[in-house]
Amino acid sequence: STDSCHSRPAPPCLACGVDDVDGTQLPLKCRDLTNNETVPSRWEGPGRCAGRYCIYSNRGFANGRGIVAITTAASFAILRTLKETSTDQTDPAPPYYLAPVPGKGLGLIANRTLHRGDALMIEPPAVLVHRGLLETVPPATQHPLLDEAITNLPAARRETFLAQMGHFQGHRVASILATNTFQMDIGGPDGHHFGSFPEVSRLNHDCRPNVAFRLDYKTLTHRTTVVRDVRPGEELSITYLDSAEPRARRMHRARQAWGFTCGCSQCRLADAAAAKSDRRLEEMKAIEARLADFGDDGVNAGLLRRLVRLYKDERMEVEMGGAYTLVALNYNMLGDAKNAVKYARLAREAVVIEGGEEAGDAEAMSMLAEAPKEHFTWRARVR
Ligand SMILES: C[S@@+](CC[C@H](N)C(=O)[O-])C[C@H]1O[C@@H](n2cnc3c(N)ncnc32)[C@H](O)[C@@H]1O
């Protein structure tokens, strides 16, 4: 029956679509994958449900890596139309290795020099869970559904998923999801999901990370890019938090949302250095507010240089896009075309690293870099 395929726990990896399982065709179309046979990408489901949330799976997704979703029929209708990325194979020689990191469990360590702008990983999710399931369905109903969903992943993917750290007590799959997922909106009126990307989830948090990440809904991928040069042996990190918050708030948030005491270099600063860092963050916010206020008469080149300096001193390479954009626009408003072009180029590079080619300001910054004097901001602050 259809159920025999859905509930089969793991290897030997029989792959069969619900459409095929009609008795006579089963032996032909449900294939044994232990010999690495490629499985076609095809969604199966709905399988078991809890209210409006049902299991859908696709063992052939992303060149056979597989995915399982617990979602609504409406979100599944969107999910099945999303483009499957072709750059989804595990890199046979990734530029990092997994190793214990004191105070943080395991982490990813660079094994070669990496440069700003280098792509690190492009990963499809292994598991996608609708927010409503996690937030509204009681554990007694939710947990068996989570357990069953995981059995629908191909064996290798399931093992990688289950090997992730679960920071919380209690149900294993629920704990893994709570420790490792990223919010992912797949579109539609009710598209809020949590995605698990097991390879990515080895990246520990740092308030001054050397890697930026973004979720690309159209290709259903998690994309990471290096934001400053990294030496071999250095840990790779992303931020789970708002890097521009003061240290006490960041540490509070790490404890409250993830249950860990942040041990990153910025959180471990001595009190005097942490207070200095907090003052820099405050000054950055204050300068940015002035640069965004076109009526502020006191904006000058010194203020622009100061903002760039503060970002560099704070090692905020992961969030340079907005600051460089403001600096480029303000140089142009002051009638300094040379610096407007310089910072518009830097802004474009940064917003693409942070948000992808389609990021809002990418095109605007290209246009400013090409023709500053034709831009509407040209000399707007010159009276
Ligand atoms: C997504 S996992 C990161 C990988 C994890 N260290 C592992 O061994 O698989 C998140 C967990 O790693 C640990 N962690 C991540 N960043 C940390 C940090 N800055 N300080 C302390 N622990 C951290 C916490 O236990 C957190 O719940």
What brief labels describe this structure?
HET-domain-containing protein; disordered N terminus; binds S-adenosylmethionine; SET_dom; four-stranded mixed sheet; 383 residues; alpha+beta; 2 domains; Beta-clip-like; 14 helices
Question: Mind explaining what this structure looks like?
Answer:
With 383 residues, the chain is α+β, with helices and mostly antiparallel strands. The chain folds into two domains: 2-238, Beta-clip-like (Beta Complex); 271-374, no CATH class. Helix content is 38%, strand content 17%. The chain contains 14 helices and 15 strands. The chain has helices spanning 2-6, 26-29, 61-64, 73-79, 131-136, 139-151, 155-162, 172-180, 247-258, 271-292, 301-313, 320-333, 337-355, 360-370, and strands at 14-15, 31-32, 49-50, 53-58, 67-71, 96-101, 105-110, 119-123, 127-130, 182-185, 192-196, 204-205, 211-216, 221-226, 235-238. The strands form four sheets. The chain has a six-stranded mixed β-sheet, sandwiched between helices. The relative contact order is 0.09. S-adenosylmethionine binds at residues 103-107, 164-165, 167, 179-180, 201-202, 204-205, 258, 260, 262-264. The site of S-adenosylmethionine has 19 residues, from strand 7, helix 8 and strand 12. This is HET-domain-containing protein.
